[in-house]
Specification:
The protein has about 400 residues and is an alpha+beta fold. The protein folds into 3 domains: about 5-115, Acyl-CoA dehydrogenase/oxidase, N-terminal domain (Butyryl-Coa Dehydrogenase, subunit A, domain 1, Orthogonal Bundle); about 120-230, Butyryl-CoA Dehydrogenase, subunit A, domain 2; about 230-375, Butyryl-CoA Dehydrogenase, subunit A, domain 3. The chain has 12 helices and 10 strands. It has helices at about 5-15, 20-25, 35-45, 65-75, 85-100, 100-110, 225-245, 255-265, 270-300, 305-330, 340-350, 365-375; strands at about 20, 75-80, 120, 135-140, 145-150, 160-170, 180-185, 190-195, 205-215, 220. The strands form 3 sheets. A 4-stranded mixed sheet has the order 3-6-7-10. Helix 5 (about 85-100) runs antiparallel to helix 7 (about 225-245), helix 8 (about 255-265) runs antiparallel to helix 9 (about 270-300) and helix 8 (about 255-265) runs parallel beside helix 10 (about 305-330).
Length: about 400
C-alpha cells in the first residue's frame, strides 16, 4: 500500500469521524461504552485497526511506518477509544507474545473489531506496587482452575468480557515463581464486580471478587508458574500505552491549552506564555521518547526502562497541563455556571490528573526502575528474596 494514499485515507477518516482535540476543550469521558465500541468497529471496518497485527489474527499486517503515519495524523484528534486502552494496548500485545495460536485466533479479531473489552486483574488490597505479593489463589481441580480472592482498581471490569488475571498457583516457591496468568470470563459464576467511585464522580475502577470461580485449564497464558514473565510484559506494555502510544491519554494537551489561552486573551501574559511553552516542550520531548519506545517494540524488543521514562514524563505532563488550565480559568476553576462546559471539563481533568501518577505503576516505581536499569544504582534490599511465599511474614 502506498504511504501517501494511506495517509490520505487516514486523514479522510479522522475528519469524517472524529472531533479535533482543540474543539473538545478538556478530557472527554473515557468510559462511554457505546461511543467507544462504535468507533472501534468503524476503525476496524475501515481497515485501520490493528495495523501491525498479523493478518491471520484480524490485523492489517503492515509495517511500523504505517502505524507512525496514523499516529501523526491522529495526534490532533480525539479518538473516543480510551475504554480500549487495556484491550488493545496491553492484552493484544501479551496474547501475541505469550498466548497460544488458538487463543490469538479466538480473541484478537474480536478485540480489534470492538466486540470484546478486556481488563487486567493485577492489584490487590495488600499487593499494589509489589504485585508479586498477590494472594489470589488458583487451585487445579482436574481440567479446571478454581480461583478465589480479590482484585482492586480494575479499570473497565464492569464492561469487560474477559479479564487477564495473575494468580498464585504455588505457595511453596518464592513469590515471583509461583504465579500463573489466566484468562477469566467476566460472566463466570462467582465473579462479582463492584464499582469504586472516584473524586470526579466517574466509576472507571472496580473491585473484583472471585469466589470458587471455575475456568478451563487451557485458559493459561504462557506457562504454569511462568506468570511473572507474562505480568512484566503486560506492565511494560501498559506503560507504553499510557505514555508512549501515538494517541495516548496524555497527547494533545498543549494545543488545547493554547486555544484556551487565545480565547481568554491570556497569550500576552509573560508567566502564562512561559507555562504554555513549558507544556509544549514537554509534549514534544515525550513525543520523541514515545517514537523511540514504539520503534523498539516494533523491532521485536520488549519495552524496557524507556517505557518507564515515557510513563513518568507523561504523568508529569498531565499534571502540569491541568494546573495551567486551572490558572487560565481563574475563578471559573473554583465555581462555574452549569452551562460552562469548558470549566467543568477542565476541573474534572485537574481532579483526574493525579491518577496518571498511579496507573501502570506509581511514579516512585518508575523512578526506581530508571535508577536501577538506566543509572545503574543499587536495588533496594529484598528481605523476602528466595523465601517460599507461604513463609513470607505478610501472609501469616
Amino acid at each position: 500500500m502506498d504511504e501517501n494514499d494511506f495517509r490520505e485515507r487516514v486523514r479522510a477518516f479522522l475528519l469524517e469521524r472524529c472531533q479535533r482535540r482543540v474543539d473538545s476543550r478538556g478530557t472527554p469521558m473515557l468510559d462511554d461504552r457505546e461511543a467507544a465500541m462504535t468507533f472501534q468497529r468503524r476503525l476496524f471496518d475501515a481497515g485501520l485497526a490493528g495495523l501491525t497485527v498479523p493478518l491471520e489474527y484480524g490485523g492489517q499486517g503492515l509495517s511500523r511506518r504505517y502505524q507512525e503515519i496514523f499516529n501523526e495524523e491522529a495526534v490532533d484528534f480525539y479518538l473516543p477509544i480510551g475504554l480500549y486502552t487495556i484491550t488493545l494496548g496491553m492484552c493484544v500485545p501479551v496474547l501475541l507474545e505469550h498466548g497460544r495460536d488458538d487463543q490469538r485466533r479466538r480473541h484478537i479479531p474480536n478485540m480489534l473489531a470492538g466486540h470484546e473489552i478486556w481488563c487486567q486483574m493485577f492489584s490487590e488490597p495488600n499487593a499494589g506496587s509489589d504485585v508479586a505479593s498477590l494472594q489470589m489463589r488458583a487451585v487445579r481441580d482436574g481440567d479446571e482452575w478454581i480461583i478465589n480472592g480479590q482484585k482492586v482498581w480494575t479499570s473497565s471490569a464492569h464492561y469487560a468480557s474477559f479479564g487477564m488475571c495473575v494468580t498464585r498457583t504455588d505457595v511453596d516457591v518464592p513469590k515471583h515463581q509461583g504465579l500463573t496468568m489466566i484468562i477469566v470470563p467476566m460472566d463466570s459464576p462467582g465473579v462479582t464486580v463492584r464499582p469504586l467511585i472516584q473524586a470526579t464522580g466517574d466509576r472507571g475502577f472496580n473491585e473484583v471478587f472471585c469466589d470458587d470461580v471455575r475456568v478451563p485449564l487451557d485458559n493459561v497464558v504462557g506457562e504454569i508458574s511462568g506468570g511473572w514473565r507474562v505480568a512484566l510484559s503486560m506492565l511494560m506494555n501498559e506503560r507504553v500505552a499510557l505514555g508512549a502510544s501515538g494517541n495516548s491519554l496524555v497527547s494533545g494537551r498543549a494545543d488545547v491549552l493554547i486555544e484556551a489561552a487565545k480565547a481568554l486573551g491570556a497569550t500576552t501574559q509573560p508567566t502564562m506564555r512561559q507555562a504554555l511553552v513549558d507544556v509544549y516542550v514537554r509534549e514534544q520531548v515525550l513525543r520523541y521518547v514515545a517514537m523511540r519506545v514504539r520503534a523498539a517494540v516494533e523491532s521485536g524488543r520488549a519495552p524496557g526502562a524507556e517505557g518507564s521514562i515515557a510513563k513518568l514524563a507523561g504523568s508529569e505532563l498531565v499534571r502540569r497541563a491541568a494546573n495551567v488550565h486551572l490558572h487560565l480559568l481563574q475563578m471559573r476553576g473554583t465555581a462555574w455556571l452549569e452551562s460552562d462546559d469548558d470549566a467543568r471539563k477542565a476541573v474534572r481533568t485537574f481532579i483526574h490528573a493525579p491518577s496518571f501518577s498511579i496507573a501502570g505503576g506509581t511514579t516512585e516505581v518508575q523512578r526506581n526502575i530508571i535508577g536501577e536499569r538506566v543509572l545503574g544504582l543499587p536495588k533496594d534490599a529484598e528481605v523476602d528474596r528466595g523465601v517460599p511465599f507461604k513463609d513470607v511474614l505478610v501472609n501469616r
